[in-house]
């Protein structure tokens, strides 16, 4: 079992930045690829970013490429999502997720993730 707890969400003006954190516990963090997803009211869950076990490979959703950066610190059992140049359309609940994976795998499909956090709200005002 892996427990995931997100933090760092909040209210920010358009053009601003936030850094989300995802603290993991319960199993060996470095055995899991990590991902970030988001869901806005009335919309389907959307892939945001993913990172491989070592952090050597990353993947991003088209809507956040060039603005968001995913990272991880295996010594701290934590994944991060640095969000820059935020837009009102980035407003959503952001979830981190963990998938037991091969060394270089990154996953953009939510169904590939077994463990999920409770989410953190990000609101971007115009």
Structure at a glance:
The chain is mostly beta strands. It is built from no helices and eleven strands.
Please state the overall shape, judged from the principal axes of the Cα atoms: globular
Number of helices: 0
The secondary-structure class comes to: mainly beta
Let me know the largest β-sheet. Answer: 7 strands, mixed
- How widely separated are the two ends? 40 Å
Feature tags:
126 residues, mainly beta, 7-stranded mixed beta sheet, 4-stranded antiparallel beta sheet, globular
Protein architecture, described:
The chain is mainly β. Helices cover about 0% and strands about 50% of the residues. The chain is built from no helices and 11 strands. The chain has strands at about 5, 10-15, 20-25, 30-40, 45-50, 60, 70-75, 80-85, 90-100, 115, 120-125. Strands 2, 4, 5, 6, 9, 10 and 11 form a 7-stranded mixed β-sheet that branches. Strand 7 (about 70-75) and strand 8 form a beta hairpin. It is globular and about 40 Å long. The N and C termini lie far apart (about 40 Å).
Fold blueprint:
Elements: E1 3-7, E2 10-13, E3 18-25, E4 32-39, E5 46-51, E6 58-60, E7 68-73, E8 78-83, E9 92-100, E10 115-116, E11 120-125
Parallel strand pairs: 2-11
Antiparallel strand pairs: 1-3, 3-8, 4-5, 4-9, 5-6, 7-8, 9-10, 9-11
